[in-house]
């Protein structure tokens, strides 16, 4: 039985919507330096650094790709997953190497409760950007919903290794540790 959480859709959508416009991978801009800062467990202003990472990941280098990304995000914000999927699919057709296009569509598939297609797009995202902690968080959520707890734990741990500050990641790891040890929630 799939565990439904009322908070999942808004939280996952926030990853897409928080990024104002996200680079194809971590090879451009200041992303490697930002990710190094984010790994610091004592970083106090991690939210600012996280926003900068999302901003960099959102830069496709193409005005038309950026427009498709924004239109898809706007559709997600309105709760129109089908329109978002259409925009993100057009984006992927236009810029297939742009990791954020795949991640955004994965989020839209998740919102539409099509986990199989969401998982495929997460795989494509991580193939283009293995440091995409938001994709790993999405993977953890899906695996947990599918009650694949060991896979979920591995995804959450991978996200935590890149971004140790997120409370939702810490809570998920604690929850799964209790579950895998047989402690009732």
UniProtKB/TrEMBL annotation:
Pfam families, A to Z: TPR_16 (PF13432)
InterPro entries: Gramillin-biosynth_MTr (IPR053209), TPR-like_helical_dom_sf (IPR011990), TPR_rpt (IPR019734)
Keywords in alphabetical order: Signal
Signal peptide: 1-24
Record bears the keyword Transmembrane: no
Protein name: Tetratricopeptide repeat protein
């Amino acid at each position: 039985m799939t565990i439904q959480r009322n908070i999942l859709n808004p939280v996952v959508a926030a990853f897409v919507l928080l990024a104002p416009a996200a680079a194809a991978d971590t090879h451009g801009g200041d992303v490697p330096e930002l990710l190094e800062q984010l790994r610091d467990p004592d970083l106090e202003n991690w939210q600012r650094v996280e926003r900068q990472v999302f901003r960099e990941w959102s830069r496709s280098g193409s005005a038309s790709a950026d427009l498709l990304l924004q239109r898809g995000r706007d559709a997600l914000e309105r709760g129109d997953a089908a329109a978002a999927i259409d925009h993100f699919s057009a984006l992927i057709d236009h810029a297939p190497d742009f990791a954020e296009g795949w991640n955004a569509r994965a989020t839209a598939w998740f919102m539409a409760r099509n986990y199989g297609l969401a998982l495929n797009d997460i795989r494509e995202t991580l193939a283009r950007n293995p440091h995409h902690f938001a994709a790993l968080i999405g993977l953890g959520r899906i695996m947990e919903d599918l009650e694949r707890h060991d896979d979920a734990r591995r995804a959450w741990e991978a996200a935590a290794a890149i971004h140790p500050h997120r409370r939702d990641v810490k809570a998920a790891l604690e929850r799964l540790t209790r579950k895998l040890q047989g402690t009732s929630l």
